[in-house]
Design goal:
3% strand; membrane; 2 strands; transmembrane; transmembrane helix; 116 residues; two-stranded antiparallel sheet; mainly alpha
């Protein structure tokens, strides 16, 4: 059995302590053991918007030029792309300012997307 004497005691942090990412002991969680979450958030937002944007362009092409899709499908795809853009901007601002409450619009968007 170990007792309290075996483990070193640490002093509590002062009440005015402010944590920063510049702290030498800060080790942010890596995404896939490769990227820091800041970089991963930017890359994922870029990839998502690229895929949705190309999809919206293809839907527009098929509905307006060839007539193989109806207009409401193109409208839904464009609305999805715009909503993704707005939530991605919110997420990236939250990452930059380190405000987790700004991540929730993106998480809600993902939840709704997966639900449908």
């Amino acid at each position: 059995m170990t007792s309290e004497e075996d483990h070193p005691k640490f002093e509590p942090l002062p009440p005015n302590f402010v944590f920063t990412t510049n702290d030498p002991h800060y080790y942010g969680t890596a995404t896939c053991n490769v990227l820091h979450y800041n970089t991963a958030a930017v890359i994922s937002a870029f990839v998502e918007l690229t895929i949705l944007g190309v999809g919206a362009a293809c839907f527009y092409e098929m509905s307006q030029k060839t007539g193989s899709l109806e207009g409401w499908m193109t409208t839904c795809q464009i609305a999805l792309t715009v909503l993704s853009l707005l939530t991605s901007v919110s997420m990236l601002v939250g990452v930059y300012l380190e405000q987790p409450r700004l991540y929730w619009p993106k998480m809600t968007f993902y939840s709704g997307k997966y639900f449908f």
